[in-house]
Write a structure and sequence with these properties.
Number of domains: 2
Shape: globular
CATH topology of the largest domain: Muramoyl-pentapeptide Carboxypeptidase, domain 2
Strand content: 5-15%
Oligomer: single chain
Order of helices and strands: HHHHEEHHHEEHHEE
Strand order of the largest sheet: 3-4-6-5
Radius of gyration: 19 Å
CATH class of the largest domain: Alpha Beta
Helix content: 40-55%
Number of strands: 6
Distance between the termini: 40 Å
C-alpha cells in the first residue's frame, strides 16, 4: 500500500458538489457551476474510493499489471480488484490490453492495465478543459448547414465511432458484458467526459441519466447535437456486449428537445 502521506488523485475533492464563494467574490454562473459539478463528479466517480486511488497509483508505477497481481498487492479478491480497475478504465484513466503469458504458455490472453496517455487521461489536469467551446460552436454551425436529417445521421455516426473507440480501450477484443453491466460502465465513461451520469433501473430496462451536458448552450441552440450522445451509447453498447449496432434500440430523451431529463434508455 502507498504511504498515507502521499497525496492521492482527487483526494482534495470530497463531500457535496456545492461551490463555496468567498466573501466579496462574485458567485459563479449556473453554467460555470454546472461544469464545476460535472468535473467534481468525474473525479469522485473514479477516485472517490481510497482503495481505487491507491490502485491507480500502483498501476502508474507498475505498467502492465493484471487484476490478479493487483489483488495480491492489496489483499483483495480478484473480482474486487477487477471492479476497481474496470471503473478506472471506463473513466479513461487506465488503458487495457490483452496479452498472452510471457513464457508463451497456453491459455486465454489476460487483461493488462497501464496508465492511459493523451488528453483527459491525467486526473491532475483540470477536467473542465475537456470541453472546447470553439470546436463545439463550429460543430453546431456545420450541422446546421447540413440540414436536420443529414446532420442527425452524421452526429450519431460520429458518436458511434467514438463510443466504439472508448469501448476498445475498456474492453479489448470482443466484449461479453451483460446489458446492465455495460450500461453502468457507460455511465462511468460519460461521467469522465463531463456528463455527470449515472445508471438506474427502470423496470425491465436500464437508463443512463446525464445531469450535465458538456456541449452547453450549443446543444440547446442545436438539439441535433444530442444525436452524438445516442451514438456514443450505441457504439459503447455494441462493443461492450459484442452485438451489432442495429440490434440495440436506444431511446434518447433530451432537455434540449423539451424532455424532463437527458437520458438514454435501453
Amino acid at each position: 500500500m502507498a504511504d498515507a502521506a502521499r497525496p492521492s488523485p482527487g483526494a482534495a475533492i470530497a463531500g457535496s458538489g456545492a461551490v463555496a464563494v468567498p466573501a466579496g467574490a462574485e458567485a459563479p454562473s449556473g453554467a460555470d457551476e454546472g461544469r464545476f459539478s460535472a468535473a467534481v463528479a468525474a473525479v469522485t466517480a473514479a477516485f472517490g474510493d481510497p482503495t481505487r486511488r491507491e490502485i491507480y497509483l500502483h498501476v502508474r508505477s507498475r505498467p502492465g499489471v493484471t487484476a490478479s497481481e493487483v489483488a495480491a498487492a492489496f489483499s483483495l479478491h480478484p473480482n474486487v480488484a477487477r471492479h476497481h480497475l474496470d471503473r478506472l478504465a471506463a473513466g479513461g484513466y487506465l488503458a487495457v490490453t490483452l496479452e498472452r503469458p510471457a513464457d508463451g504458455g497456453a491459455g486465454r490472453p489476460s487483461k493488462h492495465y497501464r496508465a492511459a496517455e493523451g488528453p483527459g487521461s491525467d486526473p491532475t489536469v483540470e477536467l473542465v478543459g475537456r470541453r472546447d467551446e470553439l470546436l463545439v460552436s463550429l460543430l453546431a454551425e456545420a450541422l446546421t448547414m447540413l440540414g436536420p436529417e443529414e446532420a442527425e445521421r452524421m452526429a450519431e455516426r460520429v458518436g458511434e465511432e467514438y463510443g466504439r473507440l472508448l469501448a476498445e480501450r475498456m474492453e479489448p477484443g470482443e466484449g461479453q458484458r451483460s446489458l446492465r453491466a455495460a450500461m453502468h460502465a457507460i455511465a462511468d465513461a460519460l461521467t469522465a467526459h463531463g456528463f455527470a451520469a449515472h445508471a438506474e433501473e427502470r423496470g425491465a430496462s436500464t437508463a443512463v441519466v446525464a445531469e450535465h451536458c458538456p456541449f452547453g448552450e450549443a446543444a440547446m441552440a442545436h438539439p441535433v447535437i444530442c444525436a452524438v450522445d445516442r451514438g456514443m451509447v450505441r457504439g459503447l453498447l455494441s462493443s461492450l456486449c459484442g452485438v451489432a449496432d442495429e440490434a440495440i434500440p436506444v431511446v434518447l430523451s433530451s432537455r434540449a428537445r423539451g424532455d424532463d431529463a437527458c437520458a438514454a434508455l435501453v
